[in-house]
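re the bet — no i am not wrong, look at it urself. input seq straight from the record:
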Amino acid sequence: MWRRKLIIYSAFFIGSLIFLAIDHRGVSTGDYLFRALGLSPWSDGRNNQGLHYSVVIGIVLLLISGQLLIHHLRTKYDRVGLKVVVFSVIFFLLFPVASRWLFVVGNLNSSGLSALDYSSKDYNCSFRYNEDEALYVCTIKLFNYGKQQETVEIKPYFDDPHSARIAEASPKIEYKTIVIPPRSDSTYTLFFDGLLDHEAKGGGFTSLGGVVLKQDDIEKVFIWK
């Protein structure tokens, strides 16, 4: 009976850790599950602000599962609480590394756009408008999980409600061609030209957005938020 409860409580605890963990792309498992169900993990879903439902639920689950596991282990072992805390810290530190290699293993035979992804936590773009012309300087980290080198066209995809200047300008951004090595995570600093549908001046910066990748006339939008 003791061993059976240990398995149940341990599975509950590790599941709670996974729910809160952030992967190599900067995406939390909880947020991903919410969006997979068609739900926003934020109370203000349009602006990604307010109460962060997935984090609140994850913390509650972690506290409950942690208490159950620690209380159960204390019937046989000493200094259990500290060991559980240390395990949790190590788990969160190693999760991004583990998730990246899990994606590599899961895409061993993949190629093309399905083998590619980007990192939302390593994404930022500055932009400047001058009359009807636009210039974007973006730093983007891209992943190629597949075993083939991929040549793709790329341009930024902006989905930041706080960067009103981007939305108001309605820019038409030109693609850039890049080569992504197999099984790689490479960071690129790219310059993009664009045309505005009306004259504007000014500039700004955003770290919220994604990328559009194009290969063989097929476009795919990648956006994690």
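see?? The first helix runs from residue 2 to 20. told u. also The chain has a mean pLDDT of 89. so pay up
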